[in-house]
């Protein structure tokens, strides 16, 4: 009984995955791309930054990067608290 | 850990400084080439790892003071945050010293990179990441001996 349920569920999930993969847009043709076009067009023109990725990371989405810095700082605090020196010295 | 053999130490002497140079290169050219602050900082933090592996803990901890890396971390974070804050009449993280590309092509580069806060934030984040990963490596190395049983006088090495 368990095996039958498993087989039916696997077939259903497999059909859904195949359907989802089938409806993916082809590579290089996104559905809506005004944002990408704006970034690519104006990253070099306004900010004179040849690296579009860096201009997005540090300028257009700088608030996201400050979150990444906070993540790094939190990891640092956790690791130093975990490995802080006990009674034994170096 | 005891220092490893003379072959490893000579290799470390030869190649360790190139890690610093390559990391600084990746950080400073973050706005024109692939890479940036996080990647270059991680490359630069490999330097202290290589020193730890090759020379062992006693020598490295006699060479460096962890306060330096603390200072790098705080300086990088504060510079990053203040650079974001300085664009405030317009918005948070506004690029207030960027020069348009036509002006750069007409007049040439100045002292500050023409991409403005992008390059400066790259440098700040690079310094921060290098300091933070160095602190992580050093404190994890120091923490190894907290979880090991037995006497601690003899440092263990596996090379000789």
From TrEMBL, chain A:
Domain MrpA C-terminal/MbhE: 9-86
Keyword annotations from UniProtKB, A to Z: Membrane, Transmembrane, Transmembrane helix
Transmembrane segments: 65-83
Cited Pfam families: MbhE
InterPro entries reported for this sequence: CPA3_Na-H_Antiporter_A, MrpA_C/MbhE
Name of the protein in its database record: MrpA C-terminal/MbhE domain-containing protein
Organism, scientific name: bioreactor metagenome
From TrEMBL, chain B:
Alphabetized UniProt keyword annotations: Cell membrane, Membrane, Transmembrane, Transmembrane helix
GO cellular component annotations of the record: plasma membrane
Location in or out of the cell: Cell membrane
Na+/H+ antiporter MnhB subunit-related protein domain span: 7-134
Main subcellular localisation: membrane
InterPro entries recorded: CPA3_antiporter_subunitB, MnhB
Topological category with respect to the lipid bilayer: Multi-pass membrane protein
Segments passing through the bilayer: 12-30, 36-55, 67-88, 118-141
The UniProt record lists the keyword Plastid: no
Record-given protein name: Na+/H+ antiporter MnhB subunit-related protein domain-containing protein
């Amino acid at each position: 009984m368990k095996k039958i349920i498993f087989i039916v569920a696997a077939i259903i999930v497999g059909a859904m995955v195949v359907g989802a993969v089938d409806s993916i847009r082809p590579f290089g043709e996104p559905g809506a791309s005004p944002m990408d076009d704006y970034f690519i067009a104006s990253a070099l023109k306004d900010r004179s930054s040849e690296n579009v990725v860096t201009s997005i990371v540090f300028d257009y989405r700088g608030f996201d990067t400050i979150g990444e810095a906070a993540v790094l700082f939190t990891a640092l605090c956790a690791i130093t608290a975990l490995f802080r020196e006990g009674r034994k010295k170096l | 850990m005891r220092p490893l053999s003379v072959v490893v130490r000579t290799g470390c002497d030869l190649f360790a400084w190139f890690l610093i140079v390559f990391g600084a290169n990746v950080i400073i050219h973050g706005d024109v080439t692939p890479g940036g602050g996080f990647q270059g900082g991680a490359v630069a933090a490999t330097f202290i790892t290589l020193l730890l592996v090759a020379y062992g803990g006693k020598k490295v901890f006699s060479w460096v003071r962890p306060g330096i890396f603390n200072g790098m971390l705080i300086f990088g974070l504060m510079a990053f945050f203040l650079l974001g804050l300085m664009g405030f009449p317009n918005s948070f993280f506004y690029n207030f010293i960027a020069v348009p590309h036509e002006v750069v092509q007409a007049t040439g580069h100045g002292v500050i990179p023409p991409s403005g806060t992008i390059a400066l934030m790259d440098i700040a984040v690079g310094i921060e990441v290098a300091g933070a990963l160095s602190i992580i490596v050093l404190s994890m190395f120091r923490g190894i001996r907290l979880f090991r049983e037995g006497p601690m006088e003899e440092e263990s090495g596996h090379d000789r």
